[in-house]
Design brief:
two-stranded antiparallel ribbon; 20 helices; elongated; mainly alpha; 4% strand; single chain; Fumarase C, Chain B, domain 1; Fumarase C, Chain A, domain 2; two-stranded antiparallel sheet
Length: 484
C-alpha cells in the first residue's frame, strides 16, 4: 500500500514517533503474553512458539526507537510484525496474530500505560499528604485568622487548615484508586469488536500482563472510553482543588502577609531587584496544573460526540495528549509536595494578626447566649456594636463597650470583668472551645492527624501492593516465556 506523502507527513510519521515513545514496551509485552496463552491453549504448537519467541527476543527496543518512518508500513504494529516475519518466516509469524486484532491490542496498550500514569499521580498525592501532615503536626497550636469571602472571619489553627487540605487529598486518592482499578482490566481477546471463535483464555493474558482481570463485553472493550474519562476527571478534580490551595500559599508568601516561607531551593531572585525572594516553585506548580486541567478538558472534547465503536479519535492521535496531561499533573503535585516539605510558617506573625478585624466576635456572641440565654441574633447585635465602638476608639474598655452595646440592644447592661472579656475574645480561647468533631481545638486536630496518618499508611500499602502486583506479573510472564 502506498500512502500519500501528505498523509505520511501529517499523520503516519507523527503517530509512529509517538508510538515508539509511549507504546513500544507495552506492545512487546502483549506479544509475549499472547504467545504464551496461545501455546498453553494448544492453538500454537510448542515448536512454532519457540520460533516466535526467538523472533521477539531478537528485536532490540533501542534499535526500534532509532528507526525513522519510511512509509512502507502503516504503523508500529506492522513494523514489529515485519521484523517477526523476517525472523520467523511468513507461515510461523502469521500464527502470532491468531485471535486478536490491532483494536484489542491498542486498547490494551493504552490501559497498560494509563495505569502507570495514574500510579505516578497517586504517588505524588501520597507524598503531598505526608508533607502536609508533618507541617500540621508541627503547627497544631499555631493560631491564625482564617478568611471567608477574602475577609477576616474566625481564628483557627494552621493544623486545622492543613487537615482540610489533607482530607481533600484523601478523597482524591480514593478517586484515583477507583480510576486505576477501572483501568486495570484487559481488553485483550476482544479482537476487532466481537471476540473470537478460538478457545482462548482471556484471564490468562490478563494475569500475565498484570491486570486484575479481563474486561467484559467485547464490543464495549473496544468502544468505551469511560475508563479514560474517569481517571482524567479524577485527576482534574485533584488539580482544581490543589490549585485553590496553591493560591492561598502564594498569598501567604507575599510580603504583606508573610505567613509562609519556602525553602531556599524553591525561590528565585530578580535580575534587577536585589530584595526579591520570589516563590516561583509554587507559581510553576500552578501553571503546570492549569495546563494539565486544560489538557484534561481537551481529552473530553476530543472523544465527545464520536461514534460508539472503534474510531481513531480515541486512539493514536489522543494518546500523546493523555500522556502529557498525566505527566503535567504528576509534575505539579510532586512539585508542591517538595516545596512544602521545606516550608514553614511564621508562628508569631500568624498569632499577632489572628484577632484582626474582629475575628473572635462569634465567640463573644456565643458566650452571651450561653451565659444569659439570649437569642443569638440579639447577642450578634451586641457584638457588632462592641466592634463598632472599638473601631472608633481602639483604647476603649471592652467592659464599657459591652455595657453600652447591651443597653442599646436589650435595655439593660451586661457586666463582665475586663480580664474575662480579654480571655473570651482571645484567638486561643476561640480555638480551644471549638471541640466539635472536625473542629480546630488541638485535641480534636490531634485525633484527626492520627486518623489521617493511619489513612496515609493504609493507602501507601495499597498502592505498593499494586506496584508489587505488576512486578510479579512481569516476572511470571518472563518465566512462562522462558518455559515455552
Amino acid at each position: 500500500m502506498r500512502f500519500a506523502p501528505e498523509y505520511v507527513t501529517i499523520v503516519l510519521n507523527e503517530n509512529f514517533e509517538d508510538a515508539k515513545e509511549l507504546l513500544l514496551a507495552p506492545l512487546m509485552a502483549i506479544h509475549y503474553a499472547h504467545l504464551v496463552m496461545l501455546t498453553e491453549c494448544g492453538i500454537v504448537s510448542r515448536e512454532d512458539a519457540r520460533v516466535l519467541r526467538a523472533a521477539l527476543d531478537g528485536i532490540s527496543l533501542d534499535t526500534v526507537r532509532e528507526v525513522s518512518y519510511d512509509g512502507t508500513y502503516e504503523d508500529l504494529f506492522f513494523f514489529i510484525e515485519r521484523l517477526v516475519r523476517n525472523a520467523a518466516g511468513e507461515d510461523v509469524a502469521g500464527r502470532l496474530h491468531t485471535a486478536r486484532s490491532r483494536n484489542d491490542i491498542d486498547m490494551t496498550m493504552y490501559r497498560i500505560r494509563q495505569r502507570e500514569f495514574i500510579a505516578a499521580v497517586a504517588t505524588g498525592v501520597l507524598d503531598l499528604r505526608s508533607a502536609l501532615l508533618n507541617l500540621a503536626e508541627r503547627h497544631r497550636e499555631t493560631v491564625y485568622g482564617a478568611h471567608t469571602h477574602t475577609q477576616p472571619a474566625q481564628p483557627t489553627t494552621m493544623a486545622h487548615y492543613l487537615l482540610a487540605v489533607i482530607e481533600q487529598l484523601e478523597r482524591d486518592t480514593a478517586r484515583l484508586t477507583a480510576a486505576y482499578d477501572a483501568t486495570n482490566l484487559s481488553p485483550l481477546g476482544s479482537c476487532a469488536i466481537t471476540g473470537t471463535g478460538f478457545p482462548i483464555d482471556r484471564h490468562r493474558t490478563s494475569e500475565l500482563l498484570g491486570f486484575s482481570g479481563p474486561t467484559g463485553n467485547t464490543y464495549g472493550s473496544i468502544a468505551t472510553v469511560d475508563y479514560l474519562l474517569e481517571s482524567v476527571s479524577a485527576t482534574s478534580v485533584l488539580l482544581i482543588g490543589l490549585g485553590r490551595v496553591v493560591q492561598d500559599l502564594l498569598l501567604w508568601c507575599t510580603m504583606e502577609f508573610g505567613y509562609l516561607r519556602l525553602g531556599e531551593g524553591f525561590v528565585q531572585g530578580s535580575s534587577i531587584m536585589p530584595q526579591k525572594r520570589n516563590p516561583v516553585a509554587l507559581e510553576h506548580a500552578r501553571a503546570i496544573a492549569s495546563k494539565a486541567v486544560g489538557q484534561a478538558q481537551a481529552i473530553a472534547t476530543a472523544v465527545h460526540n464520536t461514534p460508539f465503536g472503534d474510531i481513531v479519535d480515541t486512539e493514536d492521535d489522543l494518546q500523546p495528549l493523555v500522556a502529557s496531561m498525566f505527566r503535567d499533573a504528576a509534575r505539579a503535585v510532586t512539585l508542591v509536595a517538595a516545596a512544602m516539605r521545606g516550608a514553614d510558617f511564621d508562628v508569631e506573625r500568624l498569632a499577632a494578626r489572628a484577632a484582626d478585624g474582629g475575628t473572635t466576635l462569634t465567640e463573644l456572641a456565643d458566650t452571651l447566649v450561653r451565659d444569659h440565654g439570649l437569642p443569638f441574633r440579639s447577642a450578634h447585635g451586641i457584638a457588632a456594636l462592641l466592634l463598632k465602638a472599638r473601631t472608633e476608639d481602639s483604647a476603649a474598655s471592652l467592659s464599657e463597650a459591652l455595657a453600652s452595646a447591651s443597653q442599646a440592644i436589650l435595655g439593660h447592661t451586661l457586666a463582665y470583668a475586663e480580664a474575662d472579656l480579654q480571655t473570651i475574645m482571645s484567638p486561643r480561647h476561640f480555638v480551644e472551645v471549638r471541640t466539635t468533631h472536625g473542629g480546630p481545638a488541638p485535641g480534636e486536630t490531634l485525633r484527626a492527624l492520627r486518623q489521617s496518618a493511619d489513612a496515609l499508611a493504609r493507602d501507601r500499602a495499597a498502592w505498593q501492593a499494586r506496584r508489587d502486583h505488576l512486578i510479579d506479573a512481569e516476572r511470571l510472564l518472563r518465566d512462562r516465556v522462558n518455559a515455552l
